[in-house]
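Before a colleague's protein record goes any further, I have to sign it off. What it holds is a sequence and that sequence's fold in token form. Would you go through it and say whether the fold makes sense for this chain? The record follows directly below this note.
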Amino acid sequence: MIRQLQISNYAIIDHLEVNFKSGLNIITGETGAGKSILMGALSLILGARADTSVLKTTDKKCVVECSFALDGQKSAPKYLIDQELNEPGDLIVRREIAASGKSRAFINDTPVTLQQLKELAVLLVDQHQQFDTLQLGESDFQRQVVDALAGNKTKIAAYQETFKQLQSVHSRLAKLIAEKASFDKEADFNQYLFDELSELNFSENELEELDSELNLLSNAEEIKLALEETTSTLSEGEQPVVQTLRQLCSKLDHFQSYHEKLGELTGRLKSAQIELQDIAQELEGLTDEFNPDQERISIIQERLDKGYKLFKKHNVTTTKELLAIQAKLQEKLDGVLDTEAQIEALQKEEKTLQADAEKLAAALTKARLAEVKPLQEAVNKRLASVGMPSARIQVNITKEPQLNQFGQDLVEFLFDANNSGRPSPIRKVASGGELSRLMLCIKSLVAESVELPTLIFDEIDTGISGEAAKQVGIIMKELSRKIQVIAITHQPQIAARAAHHLYVFKQPQADASIQTGVRSLAKDERVHAIAQMLGGEKPSTAALQSAREMIEEL
């Protein structure tokens, strides 16, 4: 609720502090004293546009600050937490307009955007003025009214949980279908590429090894000839190297005793002879392995040709890279099959959730339809009591083609001010006074079921008097037992119901200017103010007595 409104340098206000209380706060005062100026200043706090025309003097900025108590509220504190704006104690909202026209907004001394201010304001204050339908013409608000009176909170929660799951499945299914469409476009080509690689069935490093083998086979004849020549020279020629070394070693053996170095050298020579003999034997054995095999060469050449073509096709240079491409293609092809399986499973889940959601939505529809007649009768009865005996509200509930967040119903309030039999959507009804009283009737019905912010009614009593005004006052009083209500009125029957009566007056200044003042009235002052509303500037004894009776009636 609003605790205090402070206004500086706004219109004809130099500085003003207005304190509000819980319950019904009534604002009265003479015409032109500044009641509407108070509402205009408050609208700045609620995010209204502003320019330099609101400044009383242009040598300093205009500042409007409002403090709110959030006890018992849920929506506004949650918003502050979500926006990281919550502070302990009362909520402070401030708006500043500089002489340059620049506007700044603050929530708990933190600068915020005008959009943030508006979002918070909706949770704090419902400023209902003439010719301002506000939420009344909005389908979502109308649905909330029906749901509140029908007690659909638990049903809506159950439905929304299922609907949320359904939306999630919808989203996942759409994504998978898009992926499958993309896979399908490439599926045939990917399958062709995979089959081509799979048919050749390369092993790791196979092409590199085949290339080495081909080089060997291509030079096998020359290698064999070189091996044979070397073997012959070492052990089989006319003068084999191994045989020659053996003979030399034998000659040197006779002279080893003559010089110590001869023994060492002879030993080394024997080792060389033995090593060369081993080499000759191994070379002879190796020679048999080098036999030109044209059939094998043709087989290798053919396989290498196919491999090199795939190297070029896939822009790679190794067998390992080809195998990696084959594995990736396999993964894509497997992905198509897996995606199809997932799509089939999600479609089954979607069908089940759709049926569950439709069933829950049907239960909501049934509960809403059951509330239509009681709602119409209750509102129409209250409309008659507030001076609109011929007015009728009609609640239409039609089925939407698709499920939505709140079921499958379109709720629309139709209004007929004169019982003409031609009701029209409320948003098309132009009379501000009628709409204000209609809103009062509706909100008084749902106040216990829906968390409503502070309600402000700006002269909704226009065009009514007597018993109708009295009934408006009674409804406001009932409503104020649940939430804070602030009302500007000219009707004594409404003012008499106040828990807190504020009087707006003009204060002539030394420089001949006019300043707006506000004071809270004590009981005797209230009697006098209401008597003035009944009988003029100088109320008679009868008017004073009537005013006293009105107040004591409560």
Q: What stands out?
A: DSSP finds 16 helices and 15 strands in the chain.
